[in-house]
Every structure is written in structure tokens, then in C-alpha cells.
Amino acid sequence: MRVDLFDFELPPERIALRPAQPRDAARMLLAQGSANIEDRIVRDLPSLLRAGDVLVFNDTRVIPAQLEGTRGEARIGATLHKRVDLRRWQAFIRNAKRVREGDRIDFSNNVTAIAEERLTDGSFVLAFDGDEPVEVLLERAGRMPLPPYIAGKRPTDDRDKADYQTIFAREDGAVAAPTAALHFTPELLDALDQAGIIRETLTLHVGAGTFLPMKVDDTADHAMHAEWGRIEADTAARLNAARAAGNRVISVGTTSLRLLESATGDDGIIKPFAGDTSIFITPGYTFRAIDGLMTNFHLPRSTLFMLVSALMGLDRMQQIYAHAIAQDYRFYSYGDSSLLLP
To answer: Where in the cell is it found (predicted)?
Structure first.
């Protein structure tokens, strides 16, 4: 499909630079099939679901994956995006033309790494020096990797250390937050429990590739970035049992959705999973694992807008986004939410 089919005009002032306070006070657009669009708030979620419905969350934790350093006199920026092993990470490099294989990059607070290998996409494998765990080094020298559409408008600060982390964050490894779950609070979780809504978690370490613009004119020519994920066997069994009982599985975020669909066969059975996924979902895809999606509002021409268009239909999503823009919804990572029930 042509990438320009997924374009739309978004006024810059619709991009949220801070999350709603409290988090569950964010607005939420409700779209059920072809029914009229409803304007709600996230706190309404328990009343919009049915007892027995299962919400699936991503428990990945964002690490301070952005580093600033030097190689000689050249200033170098690095954004880690995928772990290779205990001491090596793939990284996108700013000013990469000043870096050669074998060069040492000096980051702040005595953190150094060797640019071990340049990959075909232009990124590097960085091998960190020393014996301390890389996570410790990042806590010392790194900062939270805010999306470029926020970082380009204001500097990262201490508030982002909490704001850009979900209440479910447990497994270190993401360099972007699973932002649909940023809206959840202890009070909202209590209300969901009282309404009989079930919660399950999986892990998908979101990579910085999620923010890369598409550089092709046709979706068939796009190479999707790979991300590592895991679904435990008991989690898969409970999800299968819920669906067999006629209950809905609703993914909280596109990251959870992509991993669930990667783990599900043509028979509709969700299997345990541990490994990389580079699934790319566009209109025409048949969903096998999920019955709905809670998600924020996505970039024009992005793989994530293509995903929601596959779920609801492209014309329907253009209608939904036109409504959201006209009604002053806040977009992107710190923005408002939508509940999409095809």
C-alpha cells in the first residue's frame, strides 16, 4: 500500500509535552465498530468493559538509554535501542561519520565504550568497558530517551524519570515507553478489579526504531525493526482460557498487541514466546489474538497508524483522528488515549 494513504495534518500544538495529572484524568476517545465516536476519560474504562475482559500490559522498564560523549574532539550522541548481550548494545549514533570501527567513545562519569561494528542500517554495536553492569553505567551517565517530537521542544528533566515510566515497569530493557499504559494509576487498577476486569502482563522491550520515519513510498518495501519479547507459558494458557470462555482480550498498547499477534498461530492459540519479533501489521491483516486495543494517538505515515488502520479500517481511522484533532485531543506519548473496539 502507498505510505501517503496514511498521512494526515496534525497541528503542532496538539503534541503533548507533559502527561495529564493525575494520569487517569487523560481524555479517551471511544470507537466501537461503526457506532458514533464518544468522548470519555481514562477513568471511565471500568464502565466501558465487561466482567471477564482481559487487559494485557507490557511490563518493560525504560532505561536511561541516551548518552552524550566524545571521540577525540568530535561530539557524539548515542541512543541504545537493542541489547546484543550483557555488555554490548546496538545504538543509533549522532555524528556517526566521525566514528570508525574500533574507536573508543568517552561518555560522562567515566563511562566508555568501543564502537565495535557498524551495521548495515548505519547503527553501531557498542561494547561497554569495565565490569559494572551496563544498567549501572547507564544510570550514571544516561538520560531518559524522550521521543524526538518531545525532546525537540524541551529538554529532558527529572520529572521525566517518573512520567515516562508506567506503573507496571519491571523488566529493564526498553528505550521507549509502552505509552498506552502511562494512563494507569493505583486507583484505576482498583476500580478495574472491582469491575471484574482481569490483568495480564508480557514483556516487549520497545526499541528506538519505533520512532524512525518510513523512508519508502510503499509499505511492501519497509523493513520493520526487531524487538525482543517474552510471553510466559502460564500467561498464554490463561489468555487462551479467557478467549475460549468467550471473554475479550484487549491489548493495552501496540507493543503488547504486536507481541500477542507474533505468538499466535493461524488456529488462534497464543503460544509461549521468547525472542525477536519484527511483525509489521497493515490493512488486510487478520487479527488472531486480540479483540480490542487501548492506545494513544500516533504519528502520520507511521507503522503504528498503519496498525490501528488494520484494526479499524483506514477510512474509519481517518474519521477518528479528524474527530480527535477537531476536539483538541492531545497526541503522542504524553497525550490522550483511545479505546478501539472493532
So the answer is: Cytoplasm
User: At 26, phi and psi to the nearest 5?
Assistant: -60, 150
Among 140, 96, 141, smallest CA distance to 115 is for 96
Express each pLDDT in 276-305 by its tens digit. 999 999 999 999 999 999 999 999 999 999
Q: In the sheet where 292-296 sits, what is the strand order? A: 38-41, 27-32, 337-341, 292-296, 249-252, 54-58, 198-204, 227-231, 273-277
Amino acid 235 reads T
Domain final position from 142, 172, 190: 142
3-state secondary structure of 147: coil
CATH code for the domain in which residue 137 is found: 2.40.10.240
CA distances in angstroms from 84 to 88, 89, 96, 177, listed in the order given:
5, 5, 20, 20
Beta bridge partner(s), residue 71: 74
Quick one: 54 and 74 in the same domain? no
Backbone angles phi, psi at 203, to 5 degrees: -130, 125
Count of alpha carbons within 13 Å of 163, Cβ hemisphere only?
Answer: 20
The answer to whether the CB of 67 falls within 8 A of the CB of 106 is: no
Has this prediction a pTM greater than 0.90? yes
CB 1 within 8 A of CB 218: yes
CB of 29 within 8 A of CB of 224? no
pLDDT in tens, 159-190: 999 999 999 999 999 999 999 999 999 999 99
Amino acid identity of residue 217, one-letter, is D
Residue 9: which domain range?
3-62+162-341
Q: Which cell numbers in the block locate residue 128? A: 561497554
